[in-house]
Amino acid sequence: MKESTAYIWRTHRGATHGLAWSLLVCTISALQRIYRGNFQISNEGVRELNFLLYGPVGAGKSSIINTIKSIFEERQYIECLAAAESTTSQTIHFQKFSMAKDGSFPFAFSDIMGLEKELLKGVSSEDIISALKGHVKEGYTFNPVIPLTDPNEYYRTNPGPNDKIHCLINVMPADKLAMMADDFIQKMKQVRVAASRMSESHIPQVVFLTRIDRTCQMTKEDLRKVYKSKKIRDKCSNTLGVPVNCIFPVWNYHEETGVNAEINCLMLNALTQIIPWANDYIVKSLNNQPRLE
């Protein structure tokens, strides 16, 4: 992989805002050295750290996968069909996307049908939980009315460690938080509660906050100012019950024709946090039996 510059964020105390942000330069090759040379998954039975993306239709779940692939491929990469402004999910099958086939980045992201506020539309909460437990096989076609159960050719009866999800990512559109109906929020909270009860190890649950350029003109003009205001992250934290330090603003590729260092920096910052958390979960799971199967 050729050398290419990206950025990650780090905080320091500032005199004016109390919390100012500075850019640190890093490279994709540096990340590659970390994850190829030093990073090892703590369970030999797990080939990849598995991350599950879920959230409203049009929040940017598929675009997140495209953005991550673009970073590691160092070019615009479109593997997932993104919903953009659609009100219906473009993802109808359970899909798993590995970040690198040569093992240099041992993690994968699974994409599912989007959530909808109506009871019998969008992915069901039951299917999300089944996916977390490793029961859902790749290629399964989601049915909003009838959740996947055994017996079914796409139901994995005895999932192994490599089949299970190691981190749950709620993808939320920053510009639509205030407009979300209470029943829709309750649907997402139901998933969070069920995931928390799965095992004593407590699967990591984070939020990727998308469409941040549509919430603040200052951020749209200068992405480096994204962290100067915590208003939108505080709103998300209060709405979903997620700690602020588990909420990561990200910017997906959608208008750009080439790779962009400032877009990359936000996603890389999120990845450098959640990858160790997912690995920590595997370590804890080795000594804890799940409460639910």
From TrEMBL:
This is G domain-containing protein. Gene3D superfamilies: P-loop containing nucleotide triphosphate hydrolases. One of its GO terms (biological process) is immune response. PANTHER family: INTERFERON-INDUCED PROTEIN 44 (PTHR14241), INTERFERON-INDUCED PROTEIN 44-RELATED (PTHR14241:SF1).
